[in-house]
Specification:
- By secondary structure, the chain is mainly alpha-helical.
- It has one domain.
- 80% of the residues lie in helices and 0% in strands.
- It contains 10 helices and no strands.
- It has helices at 6-22, 24-34, 39-67, 73-90, 104-118, 120-129, 134-161, 164-182, 188-193, 197-224.
- Helix 1 crosses helix 8, helix 4 packs across helix 6 and helix 4 runs parallel beside helix 10.
- It starts with 5 loop residues before the first helix and ends with a helix.
- It is a multi-pass membrane protein.
- This is Integral membrane protein, YjbE family.
- It is found in: Membrane.
């Protein structure tokens, strides 16, 4: 594997982008779960909890990569990723109800459990963006997770201040969904017959996600008013 291969670099950047966009809730969980610990134990909870969560996420992604070899599962995964991208644009739920723990082990378990439950979208997205390469997943996680942990407040602040970043993140997910669908082996004859779909589909998924997300948000505003 060439370390300066443009395709590999783009995959890693996509993985990092997906983690940063979808990692906001996980960062909140880490903060909430460890907020009642003594200062001397907070860093331990964050490091151990996040380290175990990364290991579990890599294993889950490896399983997802294996499952995506099953016929039509890439198509299903791509459609699911489109739903996740739209949900990202229209999600206005409050912060998760995570209770802070004054026990180090309990805090670590809370961080790991919450990450596994809330990390399903990440796993599907990472499986698609990596193109079946678990090494890329590990590299992307090692780069992005420390940013999520130590820079979560900055990331969330920028997303609140510049909503366009959420749309950029959703577009990355939509593009990944399009690429995942194009990778569906059972549909290769169709894509070979209509070669233009190789270029049109990823762009079409981005436009679809942005337009549908914007439409749903407009409907919500009208309903409130």
């Amino acid at each position: 594997m060439e370390f300066f291969d443009p395709e590999m670099i783009m995959s890693i950047l996509a993985i990092i982008g997906i983690d940063l966009v979808l990692g906001g809730d996980n960062a909140i969980v880490i903060a909430l779960a460890s907020r009642n610990l003594p200062r001397s134990q907070r860093n331990k909870a964050i490091i151990w909890g996040t380290g175990l969560a990364i290991c579990i996420r890599v294993l889950l992604t490896a399983v997802a990569l294996y499952l995506l070899q099953i016929p039509f599962l890439k198509l299903v995964g791509g459609l699911l990723l489109i739903y996740i991208a739209i949900h990202l644009l229209t999600d206005d739920e409050d912060e998760p109800d995570i209770k802070g723990s004054d026990n180090l082990l309990s805090a670590i378990k809370t961080i790991v459990f919450a990450d596994v439950v809330m990390g399903f979208d990440n796993v599907i997205a990472l499986a698609g963006a990596s193109g079946g390469n678990i090494i890329l997943v590990i590299i992307g996680l090692l780069i992005s997770v420390p940013i999520i942990i130590w820079g979560s407040k900055i990331i969330l602040l920028f997303m609140e201040k510049f909503p366009i970043l959420v749309y950029i993140g959703a577009s990355i997910l939509a593009y990944t969904a399009g690429e995942m669908i194009l990778g569906e082996e059972r549909l290769q004859s169709l894509f070979e017959q209509y070669y233009a779909l190789q270029y049109i589909l990823p762009i079409a998924t981005i436009l679809f996600v942005v337009i549908v997300g914007q439409y749903i948000n407009q409907r919500k505003i009208k309903t409130v008013n």
